[in-house]
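Students often ask why inverse folding is considered easier than folding. One informal answer: many sequences map to the same fold, so there is more than one right answer. In these notes we will look at a single instance of the problem. The structure comes first.
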């Protein structure tokens, strides 16, 4: 069974969350649909069976568990149950999802077991902030658009996506009415994680639909335009926000060039790396970074999503055009500052994982 840390790491990399909702999928088709979602490479799968008795949910959960590969080592998707935390240990699920009218996050966690993830639905900025404070590992935000899957709820609209993104640090999944018409719109306003229920379940080719969604999330105009800081500190962070925040932060510092930056702030063995990173940054960033200092805490000032949980693999993926990388080390690292990044690459180079091109 994956540990809580492994589950959190898997969650931090997640983009597409699917729900097997028995309102759309009869129990007899649950196994087939689950297989299709696994084939499509979704990151989370939830079982949502509003009208079934507990015993039937447990039985379906066990069937799904047998199909869904373990999420340890980032292999399979996370498997989440809706509403019944006590079933989590017996089914072997990775977590539980609760709504605003359900058990608190703390009680759900206690019933589901200490290693389980707890997600919470939110329908406003206030609820999103409160859910994070309450300790939710991720939140759902929606319904963004009106949806027959949750007919009694007033849609919150796409404008909430950006507000939540700047206020909340835990992963946030946009939900409600997301389909081939609406996904491009929410991506342009900053959505980077989505839950899709009906559009995915009703698709005639579920794996192909999953691939299309992922492509939308990863090749949006925002994503393609992104500069180095965005690639490093979180895709979908908008250019104008980057420019403004980085300029604000850096305007205090004297001008530096790559050479003086590296030699001023780093010991000799790390200077080449620092210089290279500075140059990559300058070349690819939309921001003026001439005053960059190693101790600048971009996470605190820029509130970029996911920075805490950026893994070595993700970081190296972004710099692989400049370094030859053999990604065998999946140790999650905490990169808070430019100096941390230099240190981390130095460590990887010393261990032979990264070599200069
Ligand atoms: N919570 C907010 S909207 C929603 C839930 C469970 C349903 C989303 O379903 P669909 O079919 O993707 O609109
Ligand atoms: Mg519920």
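Output (designed amino acids):
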């Amino acid at each position: 069974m994956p540990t809580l840390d492994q589950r959190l790491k898997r969650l931090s990399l997640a983009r597409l969350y699917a729900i097997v909702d028995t309102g759309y999928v009869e129990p007899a088709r649950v196994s087939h649909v689950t297989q299709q979602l696994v084939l499509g490479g979704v990151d989370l799968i939830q079982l949502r069976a509003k009208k079934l008795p507990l015993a039937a949910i447990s039985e379906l959960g066990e069937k799904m568990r047998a199909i869904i590969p373990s999420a340890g080592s980032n292999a399979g998707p996370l498997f989440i149950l809706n509403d019944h935390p006590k079933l989590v240990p017996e089914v072997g699920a990775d977590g539980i999802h609760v709504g605003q009218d359900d058990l608190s996050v703390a009680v759900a966690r206690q019933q589901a077991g200490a290693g389980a993830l707890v997600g919470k639905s939110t329908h406003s900025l206030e609820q999103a902030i409160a859910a994070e404070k309450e300790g939710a590992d991720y939140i759902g935000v929606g319904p963004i658009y009106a949806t027959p899957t949750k007919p009694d709820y007033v849609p919150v609209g796409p404008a909430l996506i950006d507000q939540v993104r700047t206020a909340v640090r835990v992963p946030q999944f946009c939900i409600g009415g997301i389909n081939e018409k609406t996904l491009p719109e929410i991506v342009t306003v900053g959505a980077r994680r989505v839950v899709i229920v009906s559009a995915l379940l009703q698709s005639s080719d579920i794996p192909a639909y999953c691939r299309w969604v992922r492509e939308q999330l990863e090749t949006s105009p925002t994503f393609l335009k992104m500069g180095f800081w965005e690639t490093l500190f979180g895709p979908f962070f908008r250019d104008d926000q980057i420019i403004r925040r980085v300029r604000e932060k850096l305007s205090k510092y004297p001008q530096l060039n790559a050479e003086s930056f590296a030699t001023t702030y780093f010991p000799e063995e790390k200077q080449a790396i620092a210089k290279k990173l500075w140059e990559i940054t300058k070349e690819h960033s939309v921001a003026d970074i001439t005053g960059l200092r190693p101790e600048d805490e971009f996470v605190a000032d820029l509130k970029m999503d996911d920075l805490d949980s950026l893994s070595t693999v993700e970081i190296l993926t972004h710099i692989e055009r400049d370094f030859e990388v053999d990604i065998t080390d999946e140790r999650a690292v905490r990169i808070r500052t430019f100096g941390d990044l230099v240190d981390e690459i130095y460590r990887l180079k010393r261990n032979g994982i990264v070599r200069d091109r």
